[in-house]
Amino acid sequence: MDTEEKILVLGKSAQYDLCGNYLCQGTHRIRSGYGQWIYPAVLPDGKEIKLFKVLLSNNCSNNCNYCANRLERDFTRISFRPSELAKIFMALKEKRLVEGLFLSSAVEYDPKKTMEDMIKTVEILRYNYRFNGYIHLKILPGVTPDYIGQAMRLADRVSVNLEAPSGERLKRLSIEKDFDKDLLSAIKHIKSFMEKGLKPRAGYTTQFVVGPAGESDRELILLVDKLYRELGLKRAYFSAFQPVKDTPLEDHTPTPLLREHRLYQADFLLRDYGFSAEELVFSREGGLYLPADPKYVWAMNHPELFPVEINTADREKLIRVPGIGPKSANRIIHFRKKEKIRDLETLKGLGVVVKRAKDFVLLDGKRVRDKNIQLALFRDEIIKAV
Questions:
Q1: CB-CB contact of 62 with 176 (8 Å)
Q2: DSSP secondary structure letters along 53-99
Q3: Cβ–Cβ under 8 Å, residues 41 and 49
Q4: C-alpha 71: how far from its chain's center?
Q5: Cα-flanking dihedrals φ and ψ of residue 50, to 5°?
Q6: Exposure string (b/e) for 198-207, b if CB count within 10 Å is 16 or more?
Q7: How deeply is 292 buried, as exposed, middle or buried, from its count of CB atoms within 10 A (0-12, 13-18, 19+)?
């Protein structure tokens, strides 16, 4: 198999590891002469770069029920040598096709040996080729703390994929992996290294496979909230399950992409809006309300907190208004130092989504419009549904 074919196969195999803001940023894969597995990623400073996303190997010794790379599935199995992959990446970089690397791998026989080869690939890039750009390195389940520390020293970001919110849920996806011993413990080791001063500049992330383990949205959000507050998580990713042929879950119902989208919106509320998981509104079964975004649902369930006076409310109250985000709240606070905000056009010019905000605000003491019947009915529908 030639180099281009290997890139296509191992690039495609990497698609299930998420590393960018695809859904929420509206971005797409970039097609290049080497194929379609070059992705846009947003760095902590807001800069977008082209990221080469690839597996070192797709030859997995695990048998996860949902995974295309599972041991008992019949498909083409190939691997890169560390020096080979490093050389390929630098060739792509020299052609200005990529700017950074996301490196993951299936567990080939032994997680420690595979992790060694991943680390060696990055060492070749850092020390032999003097590449100082962005690298995201996945930490494999079951590796010891010394490998985690090496990965954190070399990479700008590391990740540990929890896949499910608990050990009980993970058993439905994989019988080989131990949630506490192989996955959660790796995150705790990352936290320990960070407390000792070893901090990758882009932190660490995790990912969940949404749907096939039977978990609720509440379970996912409660765990993510805890990871943010107690263990220093930088970002959580959610991957809506899509069945793969010739796996035990090939006949399982796909997870709606809308559910993934609502989970990302709830996640933004935790990270950027000051919400706690306990504040969000779930159904009796623990699901988010799919027809409306979680912030709007929360606002509908707290009519006692609205309307908010745009000209006097502090930032915390402003960002709780549907249609107002952190950036538009900052613009509002800056603008009203000079003059009062009296109309929707001014709000719109400050970046507010007035269609969402208008029923929840006062402008200089006045309601923008009278309370209408449709809004009241919609509120009753949401409250009844959850």
A1: yes
A2: EEESB---S---TT-TT-TTS-S---B--HHHHHHHHHHHHHTTS-S
A3: yes
A4: 27
A5: -90, 125
A6: eebebbbbbb
A7: buried
Distance from CA of residue 210 to its chain's centroid? Answer: 12
Find the DSSP H helices in the chain.
Answer: 3-13, 22-25, 82-94, 111-123, 145-154, 167-170, 185-195, 217-231, 257-272, 294-300, 315-318, 326-335, 344-349, 354-357, 373-385
At 86-103, the pLDDT tens digits run: 999 999 999 998 999 999
Contact 210, 290 (CB under 8 A): no
**How large is the average pLDDT for residues 210-227?**
98
| pTM, rounded to two decimals | 0.88
* C-alpha to C-alpha distances, 31 to 4, 9, 35, 36, 195, nearest whole angstrom: 14, 15, 6, 4, 40
Largest Cα–Cα separation, the chain: 71
Length of the chain equals: 386
CA 47 from centroid of its chain's CA atoms = 17
Is residue 206 within 8 A of residue 237, CB to CB? The reply is yes
Tell me the average pLDDT across 295-316. Answer: 96
Q: Find residue 308's DSSP bridge partners.
A: 361
